[in-house]
Every structure is written in structure tokens, then in C-alpha cells.
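Session log. Operator J.P. requested a structure for one protein chain; no other inputs attached. Running the standard single-chain path with C-alpha cell output.
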Amino acid sequence: MNPNTPEPSDLPAYAPQWPTAPAGFADRVTAAVESQHRAHRRNVWIVRAGVSALAASVALAVVLSQPTPQPEVAVVAPIRPAANPIPLQKPFADAGDVLAAITKATTDKALAPSKTMLASAERLPMPKDADARMTVDAKGFFESTESARAGLDPVASQPRRAMNRMFRDFGIAPSKPRS
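Structure written below.
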């Protein structure tokens, strides 16, 4: 080449024209490369898991195909019955009698204070006209059932309201749904 001859890149008509990249091109290329890399790693992981499962199944098949050792069977001499066998019912009956005696003694200890209290209450004099004051007429029972029905009416018709009232009375706050 002649030093006086210009290079094609020196001439504007021969200069390479590089197209301009569209906006966000580098970001899209980067995202595509990262996505492809993740897919490749996922495929490698799936292959490794499959190979591991296959190896485990082969190992399990080998272990299960091994013959199991047969246990040795001992020869036992026949047992001869005793000359005077002890009946089994007697020890159990004795144990039941002992348990009943212990229970009775414990119950007597626990009830002793209340028996003395009841005995002292039986010695109290009763008024002579007690039977006359203890008569109850049917009207009183009818009024009590009507008042009980009136008291339960606000919660009887609405079970949810009754449960919320019970929770509130026991100190358990029901959770209110958020909208």
C-alpha cells in the first residue's frame, strides 16, 4: 500500500455505520441471559435429583433382594404340669379384697368431717309451721318459666349473638373479621 493512499476508514463514504441500539436493549439482553442461566441451573438440579432418586431406588432394591437370615429355632422340652397347681383365682380375689379394704378406709377418712356436720344438723329443731311455708303453687312455677323464657329470648333467636355474649362474659374477645 502506498502511504499517500488514504485508508477506506478515513473516507466518510467508506466509514462503517453502526446502528444505534433501541432504548432498554441492554436491560432486555441482561434479563434474557439471567433467565437462561436460571433455567440451566434448574435443569441441572432436576437431573441431579433424578439421578439421586434412581441411585436410592437401586440401593433399596439391592438391600431388599438380600435373603433374610433365618432365626434359629430352639427346641423346648415339654412342660409337665405341677402335681398341686395353685388356682389363679385365689391371688386375684385376695388382691380385690385388699383393694376394697383400702378404698373403704380412705372413704371413711374423707367423709368423717361431713358425717359429723350432718349429725349436728339433724339435732337442730325445725319450726312447727315449716310444712305450711314450703307449699308452692303452680302459678309460681309458670311465672318463673315465663320470666326465664323472656330473659333468654334476646339470645335464643340469634346464636352468634349468644356466643359473642358468652365469650364477652368469660373474657374471651371474639376476633372481628376485617373488611
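Operator note: The CA atoms of residues 105 and 111 lie 10 Å apart.
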